[in-house]
């Protein structure tokens, strides 16, 4: 397959509030690999994690296994800065094709989606939200590939790892 026939690799954007959600998180993750990039948003800040909570390793590995090059936005999900950073990232790089948000980042994913114009929305081919109760596929009208995951039995912070483990091993 060459670049003209290879489907665009979605970019993961993660937006997170107080707890980690695997869809919207503030922070950047850089990956070597496919031409498409992902933006991942962290969750809400805590005393131990002032830039937001997220199991970065699991979120990055999830993106990688799906063929994305992920970027974690280095800002907590309980700030408007995360939404602004994600929108800016999507607008300045057409290789961003996916959004991944955890917890507060998951809630921010809705706001990011609503802030995109029609062309930007068409480019986003994958949305992942983890640990953001009340966020559902209907919040992303027009996007065919939306993954919404509730908190696993192990608890909220285990969401990104449970999502990763739901994939077949590579």
Summarize this structure briefly.
This protein has helices at residues 56-65, 80-92, 104-115, 118-123, 159-165; strands at 14-15, 24-27, 37-41, 69-72, 96-102, 126-130, 146-149. The protein is α/β, with parallel strands linked by helices. The radius of gyration is 14 Å and the shape is globular.
From the N-terminal CA to the C-terminal CA, the straight-line distance is 20 Å
Largest sheet: 6 strands, mixed
Strand order of the largest sheet: 1-2-3-5-6-7
Succession of helices and strands: EEEHEHEHHEEH
Number of domains: 1
Do you know the CATH topology?
Answer: Rossmann fold
Task: Describe the 3D structure.
This protein has helices at 56-65, 80-92, 104-115, 118-123, 159-165, and strands at 14-15, 24-27, 37-41, 69-72, 96-102, 126-130, 146-149. It is an alpha/beta fold and 170 residues long. It has one domain (14-165): 3-Layer(aba) Sandwich (Rossmann fold), CATH 3.40.50. Strand 1 (14-15) and strand 2 form a beta hairpin. Helix 1 runs parallel beside helix 5 (159-165) and helix 2 (80-92) crosses helix 3.
């Amino acid at each position: 397959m060459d670049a003209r026939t290879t489907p665009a690799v979605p970019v993961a954007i993660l937006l997170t509030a107080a707890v980690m959600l695997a869809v919207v998180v503030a922070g950047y993750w850089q990956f070597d690999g496919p031409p498409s990039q992902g933006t991942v948003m962290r969750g809400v800040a805590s005393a131990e994690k002032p830039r937001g909570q997220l199991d970065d390793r699991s979120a990055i590995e999830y993106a990688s296994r799906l063929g994305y090059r992920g970027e974690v936005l280095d800002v907590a999900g309980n700030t408007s800065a995360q939404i602004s950073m994600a929108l800016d990232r999507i607008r300045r790089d057409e290789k961003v094709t996916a959004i991944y948000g955890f917890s507060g980042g998951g809630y921010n994913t809705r706001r990011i989606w609503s802030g995109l114009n029609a062309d930007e929305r068409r480019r986003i081919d994958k949305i992942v939200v983890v640990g953001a109760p009340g966020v559902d596929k209907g919040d992303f009208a027009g996007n065919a590939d939306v993954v919404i995951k509730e908190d696993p039995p192990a608890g909220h912070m285990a969401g990104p790892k449970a999502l990763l483990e739901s994939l077949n091993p590579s």
